[in-house]
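About this split. The held-out portion is used to measure sequence recovery: a designer receives only the structure tokens and must propose an amino acid at every position. Recovery is the fraction of positions where the proposal matches the reference. Here is one held-out target exactly as it appears in the evaluation file.
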């Protein structure tokens, strides 16, 4: 680990030892990572990935940690955060987006360029890499609709490659990358359509207003806990089972939106796991529907 840190520092990559993961996660949960890496450019990102491959250390690649629950015991390895790698360019109706670019920045650039199709990203607190991995979506749109291609580094072969269109295997909150955790997203090309800036702006404001009205944005969380089961809404099923406000330790089923678990102070990953199991058991027993987790326990 010392050797890796030295090597990365020499290459100009910012690193931090014993990094508190709770500080970086939107859920405010998690112990310490032995080492955290913050590459700023594509070159630094590739350098880090190649160094991790060679070191054979355990590692995680994380964007804004807005869909994950880090372990209370932390992570005995290296966590690479992509959030400092923010290259974002616009050519015609295409955007070239680096893995760590926040989704709100993508939506804003599209709006300034009068390009429609990315409005749904406004208000999702993730990065481009996390959004591709999860096929993030909202208000009827998702990454599958706009992601023309994505480029990745293969930790097994050490090579960079590109997936086009359907090769990315986007489906309900999943993608090729979930089945191939050795493939790390470096960036993507998004294809949008010419639109009317005022209309784009209006849609973005409307989506944000709907979020503020219906989601518990005042508390730390990782967004919707469960994937949408076919033919149902997870939040409605949970609410109908009378689970709103149910607590395990500091974790609570939001009273504002039953599809969210919020951290009411001092919640641990163990609290969240127990509450998730309680919800799944009760919903299955009372409705026959099996809820699948969208959030990822690491
Ligand atoms: C308040 C709130 C509202 C939300 N609303 C929505 C919503 O409307 N729609 C929605 O879909 N989601 C929503 N989310 C969840 C979350 O924001 C999205 O899933 C987002 O796309 C995750 O991006 P991230 O960068 O935070 O990923 P992270 O949480 O950092 O990572 C998620 C997974 O992706 C992997 N990953 C991250 N970057 C890479 C990379 N470069 N290469 C390979 N793997 C990578 C990680 O290893 C991890 O397994 C919400 C979350 C919150 C807190």
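Reference sequence for scoring:
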């Amino acid at each position: 680990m010392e050797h890796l840190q030295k090597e990365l520092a020499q290459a100009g990559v910012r690193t931090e030892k014993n990094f508190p993961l709770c500080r970086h996660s939107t859920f405010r949960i998690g112990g310490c990572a032995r080492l955290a890496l913050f590459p700023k450019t594509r070159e630094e990102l590739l350098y880090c990935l190649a160094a991790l491959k060679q070191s054979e250390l355990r590692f995680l690649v994380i964007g804004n940690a807005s869909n994950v629950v880090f372990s209370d015991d932390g992570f005995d390895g290296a966590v690479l955060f992509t959030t400092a790698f923010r290259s974002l360019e616009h050519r015609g109706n295409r955007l070239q987006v680096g893995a760590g670019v926040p989704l709100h920045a993508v939506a804003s650039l599209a709006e300034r360029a009068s390009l429609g199709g990315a409005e749904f990203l406004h208000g999702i607190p993730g990065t481009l890499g996390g959004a591709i991995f999860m096929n993030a979506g909202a208000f009827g749109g998702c990454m599958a609709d706009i992601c023309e291609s994505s480029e990745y580094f293969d930790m097994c072969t050490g090579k960079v490659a590109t997936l086009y269109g359907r090769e990315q295997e986007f489906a309900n909150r999943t993608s090729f990358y979930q089945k191939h955790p050795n493939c790390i997203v470096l960036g993507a090309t998004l294809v949008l359509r010419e639109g009317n800036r005022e209309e784009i702006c209006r849609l973005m404001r409307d989506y944000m207003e709907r979020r503020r009205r219906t989601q518990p944005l005042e508390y730390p969380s990782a967004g919707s806990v469960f994937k949408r089961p076919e033919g149902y809404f997870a939040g409605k099923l949970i609410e109908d089972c009378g689970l709103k406000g149910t607590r395990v330790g500091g974790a609570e089923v939001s009273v504002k939106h039953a599809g969210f678990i919020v951290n009411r102070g001092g919640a641990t990953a163990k609290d969240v796991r127990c509450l998730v199991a309680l919800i799944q058991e009760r919903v299955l027993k009372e409705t026959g529907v099996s809820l699948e987790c969208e959030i990822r326990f690491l």
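Annotator remark: The chain has a mean pLDDT of 97.
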